[in-house]
Amino acid sequence: MNRWKKKAAPVNQSYKRPVLVGEGFGGRLGYFVSRALINVKQNIFVNCVTIGTITLALLIISLFLLVFVNLENAADTWSERVQVTVYFDRELPTQEQAALRSSILAIPGASKVSYVSRDEALKRFKSRLRGQETLLEGVRPEILPTSFEIALKKADRNTEGIEAFVAALKRIPGIGEVQYGEEWVRRFNTFLNFIRMLGALLGGFLVIAVVFIVSNTIKLTIYARRDELEVMALVGATRFFIKAPFLIEGIIQGGAGGVLAMVLLTGLYEGFLHNAGSFVTFDPTASGLSFLPPEYIAAICLSGIALGFIGSLTSLKRFINV
Known about the structure:
By secondary structure, this protein is of the alpha+beta class. The protein contains nine helices and four strands, in the order ααβαβαβαβαααα. The protein has two domains: 24-77 and 190-316, no CATH class; 83-179, Alpha-Beta Plaits.
């Protein structure tokens, strides 16, 4: 009877499960990237919707940043008009001018000191009354004061910085009357603080809204492929193995959205510059309107990648326990 029994196949003790991808981290990464690209091709419409949503969201934030950056530049230009003026009732000798200039420049916050003689003061007075020069007939330079005009550094143009500078300036021997338009400076700095606070509030609201919209859009794309996730989990795939292609796919979507947002913003900016004359009363180029700095452009592109990654990660939690 035993001779009719079939012998069992010998077990190969050295058998190993075949490797699907290359050995090491590089091989796995290559597989995940290729799988993510395949997913993008197989679900082109859903991915286009996601990329379009990210592009639109980042474009809105970019437009806000563009306006905010130019408002800040305009504020910096206006702040250059903030200056402290010291008046004298006599012409100062050259040596005294040099000594006072050195003492003023030694005060923290001083940027530039210019001496205005009586002749220069009269010339400026006439230029401001151009067309009405007859009002100044008989006016002699001797009736006007001389002065030092002091420009301050950007960090010291706020109310507190100017008051501290003026207090130190008055302690210098020989300094006469000091004026700096206290009320104008206070109103100007209040306006600047209001603009920055409004910008921070609007910017924060936009960021929260963008994260919410993008996360829910990516959630819809993953929900449409929930069967694929369930099958992979049933056949024993690890959480990381399931999530990695989707996370890379989110990074691709976010990166593409960030680049497209910058391309559209550049087109809108250039179009505005070339056509602004037909609907605004100023020349944007002459007024100093500028595009976003390179660091802002890089930050927006990186933000797109982060949005895609975080959106995919949070959306996967509904189907895969982290």
